[in-house]
Design goal:
By secondary structure, this protein is mostly helical. It has 4 helices and 3 strands; from the N terminus they run αβββααα. The protein has a 3-stranded antiparallel β-sheet with strand order 1-2-3, with no helix packed on it.
Amino acid sequence: MQECLELRVKDVDFERRELSVRRGKGPKDRRAMLPDATAALRSHLEDVERLHVRIARRGYDVRTEQELLGQADVSTTMICRRFSRGLPQS
């Protein structure tokens, strides 16, 4: 269960259909194959990314962006800003 909780979006490689599990059992990293049913997950992540890009390009400050996205913590908004393509780094 802990492995699932520590997954990050960048640990998922849709092109290679692989999932990187970091610090699994013991200090070891490993890769797991993704099932065919990951198309819905990929689509959802792309939709979220597009939403972040549209909001950021409108020039809202980070607090307004946080409210528009319904995120409880501004640090979540900051993480999304950093890792979404095309977003300002401020």
